[in-house]
Amino acid sequence: MKLNYNKAEFTAAYGKFSQIPSSDRIEIAFAGHSNVGKSTLINKLFNRKNLARVSSVPGKTATINFYGLDNLYFVDLPGYGYAKVAKSEKERWAGLIEGYLSSDRDIRLVFMLIDMRHAPTNDDIHMINFLIDAEMPFVLVLTKADKLKKTEREKRMEAFKSEIPCFEDIHSIPFSSQTFEGVEELRQIVEDIADDNDVVA
């Protein structure tokens, strides 16, 4: 199923999990640390400049944002791990993320974003372990791949084997918003999920 990504539309934003209405379609979620590039990835995926608002200020996405396309919702979760916000705000974000991921919504996949240039944070590892324990399908998207030279990239990929639990068993995709590396592979995964849903339906 070839999706027309240009037709993706912002649907709604919710500040509390309890506000989110029940879903009438399958969902693909985007999770990751503040400023890892979730909004940028969504814009590249849909070939749009400003569908998801990109901010230079970490922790700006404080809501769960829904984008609709055909029989799918794309769900942008708040970035976690940003230090300069109040504890109550961090707890609200955690409640949003965990409430969403622990719900009975039809979440087919989580794109879990990690900055390829650095070792994953404790929050990243916590999220990966959560997804593994919940047996929730996910793909690691290694962002900002263009910032690394070939040898640096090889070193980081080798280091991930010891830094990330079960790394060699996890599907990982280097991604760059500058060179478009990884965009087509991500779209293919999305289209396979959309196809599966058509068969089920």
Output the radius of gyration. Answer: 16 Å
Contiguous uncertain segments of 5+ residues: none
Total helix count? 5
Q: Tell me the CATH architecture.
A: 3-Layer(aba) Sandwich
- Counting helices, strands and paired strands, the structural category is alpha/beta
Give the gist of this structure.
The protein is of the alpha/beta class and 201 residues long. Helices cover 33% and strands 21% of the residues. The protein has a 7-stranded mixed beta sheet, with helices on both faces.
Structure description:
- The chain is α/β, with parallel strands linked by helices and 201 residues long.
- The protein has one domain (5-200): Rossmann fold (3-Layer(aba) Sandwich).
- It is 33% helix and 21% strand.
- It contains five helices and seven strands; from the N terminus they run E-E-H-E-E-H-E-H-E-H-E-H.
- The chain has helices spanning 38-45, 87-101, 122-133, 150-163, 183-200; strands at residues 9-14, 26-32, 64-69, 72-76, 107-115, 138-143, 172-174.
- A seven-stranded mixed beta sheet has the order 1-3-4-2-5-6-7, with helices on both faces.
- The protein is globular, with a radius of gyration of 16 Å.
- The model has no long low-confidence stretch (mean pLDDT 86).
